[in-house]
Amino acid sequence: NPDKPPIAAMYSSLVDGIVTDPELMTLPLDDHAIVRGHAIFDTATLAKGRVYRLSPHLDRLFRSAKDGRLKLPFGETEEENRARMTEIVCRTCVASGCRDGSIRYYLSAGPGNFGITSAGCEPAFYCVVYGVMRDLATFEAVDEVLVRHVPMKPPMLARVKSNNYMLNSLTAMAAQDKGGRLGILVRDDDTIAEGAIVNAAFVTAKREFVTPPFDDILAGTTVRKA
């Protein structure tokens, strides 16, 4: 099914290894990414064998980890973890055999129990490499739908790239119900906010590239480069 590209490779810090057999790509049910949604993630693009803008993606991951009070899995310092995560991402890409695709990596409070906090849990890092989703690879022009009835996230949760994307999913579903694809959220003051998984941007009549303010939405790494 082209809408569901297979996961080509997965790394788990719990075993400190990479697997390419889908039946071995597992997470413990007591991982707090599942139990409480206490995890963050980020996604980078693999294009022609190169990882696109991994460093700014990791910058955002570490900011989210700090705000989410997540322990780092590879030592005490950000420098140690950045070096190890960069190595893991690159090795997982090589193991996948893909030259083009997507890379998604998660930092979780980890497994340990079914409690409310992460006390007693082992922080975990996961990385997967998978093919490009067809609906995100083609970018056909569509009349996107403004979504007003799905609430926006509180600013703190909007800026932290938490793996809880229920409101994002509801935004896209509401848009697709009306012939759109990802939807564009509208603030209470009737200004444009962001799409379900993309930033919004505009080119003015003066050929200026402008975006909505990032105070209450996620600051995308690609739109910031533009």
UniProtKB/TrEMBL annotation:
InterPro entries for this protein: Aminotrans_IV, Aminotransferase-like, BCAT-like_C, BCAT-like_N, Class-IV_PLP-Dep_Aminotrnsfr
Gene3D superfamilies: 3.30.470.10, D-amino Acid Aminotransferase, subunit A, domain 2
GO terms of molecular function: catalytic activity
One Gene Ontology biological process: carboxylic acid biosynthetic process
Pfam families cross-referenced by the UniProt entry: Aminotran_4
Family per record: Belongs to the class-IV pyridoxal-phosphate-dependent aminotransferase family.
Record protein name field: Branched-chain amino acid aminotransferase
Lineage summary: Eukaryota, Sar, Alveolata, Dinophyceae, Gonyaulacales
